[in-house]
Design a protein that fits this description.
The complex is a heterodimer. By secondary structure, chain A is mainly α. Chain A contains three helices and no strands. Chain A has one domain. By secondary structure, chain B is mostly helical. The chains are: A mainly alpha, B mainly alpha. At the A-B interface, α1, α2 and α3 of A face α1, α2 and α3 of B.
Chain lengths: ~80, ~120
């Protein structure tokens, strides 16, 4: 999973445009959610599953907000 | 005689390995492909399927307990919201003026609105 994080960070730092960085942030959130699922199974604790659920919801809302801001210039 | 638990265990391991491999392939595509839209393709399809595979593997491993239900909830949520987010960011990128890569041959969307 660390090998999957590295391209995301590279694309966030280097990415030529703003949508590149947004896509990379979304992908990094996906990787972190999958990692939290595996970690929650290894630790046999349910709480990391809650963290993963909230993180995925926040990532979705953030992506939609940034894309609306790029599209129209206003958020709401 | 092999029991049902053994079969579920094998299926869960297969889904886990396939899911992690797909997530890795998606992020590899994020670094390899030349364009915003191509990167969007690889992360939103391969990555979402990989994450759903991981969550399905956890559900098969622990059964319908609290952890399994939360895992499959996360998986279905990702499967539901990732295409919406990808569509919105692609539309915003196209209207923002991000060009396609040099190998592209057709762009039908730029006729449907005025910049």
């Amino acid at each position: 999973m660390v090998f999957s994080i590295i391209p995301c960070v590279y694309r966030i730092i280097k990415g030529p445009t703003i949508p590149d960085r947004v896509v990379a942030l979304d992908a990094m959130t996906l990787v972190i959610v999958a990692t939290l699922g595996v970690y929650s199974f290894i630790q046999e604790s349910v709480f990391f599953m809650d963290v993963a659920l909230v993180l995925s919801i926040i990532a979705f809302v953030g992506t939609v907000t940034i894309s609306k801001y790029l599209d129209e210039g206003v958020v709401f | 005689m092999i029991g049902i638990g053994f079969v579920l265990d094998i299926l869960s391991n297969i889904f886990l390995i396939v899911g992690l491999f797909f997530v890795f392939l998606g992020m590899l595509g994020l670094i390899r492909l030349p364009d915003v839209y191509n990167r969007l393709h690889t992360t939103t399809k391969i990555g979402t399927l990989g994450a759903f595979g991981v969550m399905l593997s956890i559900l098969l491993k622990v059964g319908f307990s609290a952890m399994g239900l939360k895992a499959i909830t996360i998986g279905l949520f990702l499967l539901l919201t990732a295409p919406v987010a990808a569509h919105m960011i692609a539309r915003a990128a196209h209207r923002h003026g991000v060009d396609l890569c040099d190998e592209s041959i057709i762009d039908e969307y730029c006729d449907s609105y005025d910049k």
